[in-house]
Amino acid sequence: MTTTTELGTRRQRHLDADDLAELYAAHRLALVRLAVLLVDDQASAEDVVQDAFASLATRLHKLRDPNAAVGYLRTSVVNGSRSALRRRRTARGYVPPSEAEPPGPDDRVVLAEEHREVLAGLDRLAPRQREVLVLRYWSGLSEAEIAEACGISRGAVKSTASRALDALEKILKGDAR
């Protein structure tokens, strides 16, 4: 019969590899059953339990009570099962981005024709309107940079760009008819 002082002494000693082997033999099957009920997959359940025991093995020197080790394992299995379900849900929800098909010969011809029409339309704009649109949309300059380059105010850049776009739209619609 084990006395209270012997239990106290047993609880004060650190767990070792033999204790871990005993815990594994005694509780692995029940923990796998628990994990199967949580993750609904035998292989994943076994992985979760194995991870729990591996984690406990790194912490053997910190646990002194074998009963605390069982609680640690159970908590670790529940948390590991949650993580496995989260990973599974994330993987199922992932939709890889679809790759855009490279433009075919017909698409290239249409695009080239549209570019030619826009360039022809730009030639019909007033010089300042053409400069503002080219600097803004082809060179990517800001309104302040365009104003500095053309020697006009930012307000003039805005109004010139607006008028130029309207005029270009009318030219392109007129050419399409």
Essential attributes:
177 residues, mainly alpha, disordered N terminus, 2 domains, 0% strand
Structure description:
The chain has 177 residues and is mainly alpha-helical. The chain has two domains: 4-93, Rna Polymerase Sigma Factor, Chain: A, CATH 1.10.1740; 119-171, Orthogonal Bundle (Arc Repressor Mutant, subunit A), CATH 1.10.10.10. Helices cover 79% and strands 0% of the residues. It contains eight helices and no strands. It has helices spanning 4-12, 17-39, 42-58, 66-93, 105-123, 127-138, 143-150, 154-176. Helix 2 packs parallel to helix 4 (66-93), helix 5 (105-123) packs across helix 8 and helix 7 packs across helix 8. The protein is elongated.
Give the termini distance in whole angstroms: 105 Å
Query: Element order, helices and strands?
Result: HHHHHHHH
Instruction: Give Rg in angstroms.
Output: 37 Å
Helix content: over 70%
Instruction: Tell me the total number of β-strands.
Output: 0
Could you name the ranges where pLDDT drops below 50 across 5 or more consecutive residues? 1-11
SS element count, helices: 8
| Rough outline | elongated
Structural class: mainly alpha
Strand residue percentage: under 5%
Query: Which oligomerization state do the chains in this entry correspond to?
Result: single chain
CATH class call of the largest domain: Mainly Alpha
The overall pLDDT average reads 84
CATH topology of the largest domain: Rna Polymerase Sigma Factor, Chain: A
Largest sheet: none
The second-level CATH architecture of the largest domain is Orthogonal Bundle
Tell me the domain tally: 2
